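>> received
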Amino acid sequence: MLPEEVVKTVLTVICIMFLVYLLVSLYFARMNSGKLTQAKDSIDRINQAIDHMKLNNLNNYSLDVLNPAKWVVFGFVGSEMKPNSCNGNNCLCICKDVREAKQLEQCSESGACLEILGLKDFMEFELGLQDGNPVGMQLKMNGTIIEVRKI
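>> returned
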């Protein structure tokens, strides 16, 4: 092979690798965008459920299927640091679980949060399927306190 042909071949391989990288990046960006939309839709459903409970003086309300699967429901209450979208108030967030110190940053940048002033601290839980059944959420209102638990 001539040196010119080697250079052309190397450049071609580099271009193909760059195009593959670009396509993979676009694919995952689109997937994450879809999951964020699902999380925001679930947050809207939770907000509507709380409004419905207040309007109709209900103590309990169950939400069956929440999405996206493999994302986690977090509660940020009390004096702990909170995502920016919580404006310093107690809030419930659905975000991708990174299991690191960067969880707060993850929820701030690419999670969906809902301010709930009377939110009681709860154990985080993962959405999706558990033992073949979809994971849902139960809301319980006791005065101005709202409790959240996995069902």
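>> Residues 39-150 form one domain.
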